[in-house]
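CORE FACILITY INTAKE
Project code: CF-77B
Contact: R.S. (postdoc)
Sample description: multi-component assembly, two entities in total
Requested service: structural model of the whole complex
Turnaround: standard
Below are the sequence entries exactly as provided by the requester. Do not edit them.
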Amino acid sequence: MHSSITRLLSVTITIGAILIASVSFIWVNDFKNSGTLSQVLYGILTAGCICLVILILKIRNDINKQKLNEHKFSALLDAAPDATVIVNEKGIIQMANQQVENVFGYSKKEIIGQPVELLIPQEHHAHHSKHRMGFVKEARTRSMGEGLELRAVRKGGITFPVEISLSPIKTKEGLLISASVRDITDRKKSEERFRSLLDSAPDATVIVDENGIIQMVNHQTENLFGFTRTELIGKPVELLIPPELKNKHIQHRGNFIKAAKVRSMGAGIELNALKKNGTRFPVEISLSPIQTEEGMLVSASVRDITLRKTLENELRKSNEEMEAFTYSVSHDLRAPLRGIIGFTAILEEEYASKLDDEARRITGVIKHNTLKMGHLIDDLLGFSRAGKQEIIKTEVNTRRIVNEIIDELDKAPGKSPIKWDIRSLSPVDGDINTIRQVWVNLISNAIKYSGNKEEPVIEIGSEFDKGFIAFYIKDNGVGFDEQYKHKLFKVFQRLHDQEEFEGTGVGLALVEKIISRHGGKVWAEGKPGEGACFYFSIPM
Amino acid sequence: MNNNSVEVLLIEDNITDAELTIRELKKHNMANNLVHVKNGEEALEFIFATGRYAESRSVHYPPKIILLDIQMPKVNGIEVLQRIKSDPLTKNTPVVVLTSSKESPDIQKCYDLGANSYIVKPVNFEGFAQAIKNLGFYWLLLNQPPF
C-alpha cells in the first residue's frame, strides 16, 4: 500500500498579531487504502502544520514585541537628560543614549562594543577597572547625590569633571550596569568661584548647617583659629567656642534658626572665641541665613576685634586718668592761689597803716594776677572737660536760657544800659549744660566788648539753614579785624589788649569745641569799631 | 583750752588754708575754742578719743561744728565723714564739708553719707572770707546744736 502526500496547503488568517484562523490541508492519494497507522500519521501531520504555523506566528510576535520594547527602551534612554551608558560585567559598552554624543563627542555606533575605559582618562584606567569589579561584586544603586566625582575624557582627549550615578540591572545574560554621567564643568566652575570668593573674604567665614555642623570654612578661618580645613569640616561649630559659653551658644543657635534673619556686624554679637591652642579672643560676628534644598545653612563672618578692644580699653583708661588728673589739678592748683590772695588781703587789712599808695597798688596787682590765674585754670579745665564729656541731648529751650543769662550778666552798674534785641530763638536738641556755656561765653563777650560804646545794642536771633539751626549774636561794640579771623576760636589767641578787655583767650575756643561736638559750626564777622557778629549752628 | 570744751574742730591739711580760716573766725570771735588737726587719722583719734587723745578727750563731748576738708592724704575726708556719721555717738555732730572745686564727684557722695553742708573754697579771698564768716555765724550762733 503506497500512499503519498500529493499536496499540502496551510492557510492562516491574522489581523495584525492576532490569529483569526489557521487551516491546514493535506492531500493524500489513495487515502482510503492506507493503513490505520498511516491515516493517523497523516492526521497528526496536518495538526502539526497548524501548530507550526501558530509557533511561527508566536515567534514572530515575540520578536516584534521585543523589538518594540527595545525601541521604547532606546527612546527612553535617549530622552534621559544625562548621558547614559550601559555596560556589561566585562566593562564593554552595550548601549548608549543620544546624550552620550553631546557629552563625549562619540556617536552611539562608535561607542557600542568598546570598553568603557575609552571614556576615562588614561591615568585612572587601573583604578576604574578595580572599582568596576568591586561594584559588580556588591552591586547596589548609587545615586548622583552621593555621586562619585571623577574625570572623564571626551573624543579628542580633553578631560572634564563628571558626576556619575550607577544602577545595576539584572538580566538573563548577566549583570548590566547603567551609568548616568553628568558633565559638571560649569558647576565646578561656579563652585570654584564661590570658594575663591569665600577665601578672599577678609574675615573668617564659617558656614554651618541647622545642627551646627561646619560645612565650609575659608582660608581666613584657618589663619584665625589655627585649625586646618579638614580639622573643622564636619565638626560641631562649638569647637571654636570656649567651653564655658558652649551651652549658651547652642541655645542661641537654636533661636537663630527659628527666627533667622540677617544680622550685620554693627548690630553684631560680641563673643569670645577659642583658638586651637586654647587662647580666647574677642570677636564680632555677623550672621546670614542661606536657604538651600538640603535645609537652612548659616553663614557666619567672624572678625577678630582684639586690637579694637585693646584700643578701647586704652582709650577708656586714658580718659579715666585724664579725669583723675583734672580733678587733682583743680584742687592742687587752686589752693596756693587762695593762699596768695588770702595773705595779700591780710597784708592789706592788718598792715594798712604801714602801706602807702604804691604798696597798695602793688598788692592789688598781686591779687589781680592771681585771680586771673584762677580763671585760667577754670577755663582750661572746662575746655578739657568739654572735649571728653558725653553729650546728652535733650530739647533745649533757647529763649529761656538766653533770658536767664542776660538777667545774670547784665548787671554792670554805671555803664550805659544795653539795648537787647531778641528775635526768634528756636529750641534745639543739645546738651543743656554745654549749650548754656556757649551762650554764656558769647553773650558775656558781646557785653564785654560793647563796654566802651555809648549806646550798646545786642541782637540775638536764629535762622533755619539746610538742616541746621543757625544762631547769631550781633553787637555794635569794638569789633575785630577780619584779617585775624582765623585766630578767633583758637586757645589763648586774643585779638585785643589785655588792658582794654580782660580775658583768658579760652572762651571762644570752648564755644568752638562744644559746637563741633554737636556736629555744628562756628564763624564770625567783624568790623573794627563797628561791631561783630558771632554765629553757631546746630543740626536739627 | 580743755580738749573737751572744743567748739570748732577744723580738719584741714593745708596750713595756708587753715591759717586763713582761723584768722577769719578769730575776726568774728568764733575761734576761742577751736582745735585744728592736720590729717584724717588725727581727726578720728580726736573725735573718738583714741590714740594720742585717749587721755585728754571723751567722745561724749563732741564739737559744735566740724569743718572737714575732703582732699587729704592718707585717711581722706570722705572716710572721716563716713566714720563720724555712722557712729551713733557722733552722727549728730554737724559736719561742713570744704572742698576746692565744685566739679568734685564727691558732692553727691558727701550728701549720701550725711554731710550737713557742702562749701566750695573759692580762690578769691573775699568770697572765702565771706563763706567762713557765714559758716561761723550760722552754725555757732544761729543753729541750735543737737543737745
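Facility notes:
- Chain B touches chain A at residues 14, 16-17, 20, 23, 71, 99-101, 103-105, 121-126, 128-129 (CB under 8 Å).
- The helical segments of chain B are 15-27, 40-48, 77-86, 106-113, 125-142.
Invoice: internal transfer
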